[in-house]
Write a structure and sequence with these properties.
Layout (H helix, E strand, L loop, with lengths): L1 H31 L7 H15 L3 H17 L3 H17 L3 H17 L3 H17 L3 H17 L3 H13 L1
Length: 171
């Protein structure tokens, strides 16, 4: 019984520490926002903020994502636009809005293809495959995963290869 109580106490303390670190991260990102200057770093900061907030406050996370996209477009940075589109996709996927997630992942894919960003293309294909997997469209999921795997192998991206193989294994 003492061991169980000890384990529960440690687990509870770990959970509290994790939530504090999440709040600490959010506080840190929000503190950096007023210093941002409408550049690449601000877009990345807004993406980080939207990711951090979207699991707790969908609307607020989406608002920061929109601000990031506006700045990315002003900077005429297609790679940042693609990152923003992937971020929108992630937010909508988190909210189980698969069709919206797919729409944004496809925008990211198109943007990455337009600048021949192979790692971005692979990531977009992987995420599109993930939506197909959630929809139980296994042939489409496998097709996208295999395309992403080929790119990851060509780039010798071991982490990407491992993740994709894990996803293929689920199918």
């Amino acid at each position: 019984i003492l061991l169980i109580l000890l384990a529960l106490t440690i687990t509870t303390q770990n959970l509290k520490a994790e939530s504090l670190s999440g709040q600490a991260k959010l506080d840190s990102l929000l503190a950096e926002l007023p210093k941002a200057k409408g550049d690449t770093n601000e877009v990345k900061l807004l993406i980080d903020l939207s990711i951090t907030l979207s699991s707790k406050n969908f609307t607020e996370g989406l608002e920061y994502a929109k601000q990031g996209l506006v700045i990315a477009k002003k900077l005429e940075s297609i790679s940042l636009e693609a990152s923003c589109y992937n971020n929108f996709g992630n937010i909508y996927k988190l909210k189980s809005e698969d069709s919206k997630a797919m729409e944004y992942y496809r925008l990211a894919l198109r943007a990455n293809k337009s600048i021949s960003n192979r790692s971005g293309i692979a990531l977009s294909l992987e995420r599109i495959g993930g939506v197909h997997l959630l929809q139980a469209d296994y042939p489409a999921a496998l097709e996208h995963y295999q395309k992403a795997l080929k790119l990851y192998e060509e780039m010798d991206n071991k982490k990407g290869i491992a993740l994709i193989n894990g996803s293929i294994g689920i199918i």
